[in-house]
């Protein structure tokens, strides 16, 4: 499989990698990785990591990755709601703490 383009979520925004890209190591943020070949485009969700570009190739090292085709939409939506609920609860607890300390 020959990859023609890779897009990664960098800490300062997304960046693309093509053949003959400048070598380097880049930090990755939470987001979407896109890998394009001559015949298809695949998408992955990641929680961050690093991309090493060297010798006209890319090595992506991430903490977690999940193919877009493997994501269970109902499970992801439930996790998002739990996260929102926790944040809301945390914000209320912080407000109560501020009021207590006043």
UniProtKB/TrEMBL annotation:
Keywords: ATP synthesis, CF(1), Ion transport, Membrane, Transport. It is a peripheral membrane protein. One of its GO terms (cellular component) is proton-transporting ATP synthase complex. It holds the Pfam family ATP-synt_DE_N. InterPro entries: ATP_synth_F1_dsu/esu, ATP_synth_F1_dsu/esu_N, ATPsynth_dsu/esu_N. Residues 82-102 have a biased composition (Basic and acidic residues). Coiled coil: none annotated. Residues 3-64 form the ATP synthase F1 complex delta/epsilon subunit N-terminal domain. CDD domains: F1-ATPase_delta (cd12152). Residues 80-102 are annotated as: Disordered. GO terms for molecular function: proton-transporting ATP synthase activity, rotational mechanism. It is found in: Membrane. Belongs to the ATPase epsilon chain family. This is ATP synthase F1 complex delta/epsilon subunit N-terminal domain-containing protein. It comes from marine metagenome. The lineage of its organism: unclassified sequences, metagenomes, ecological metagenomes.
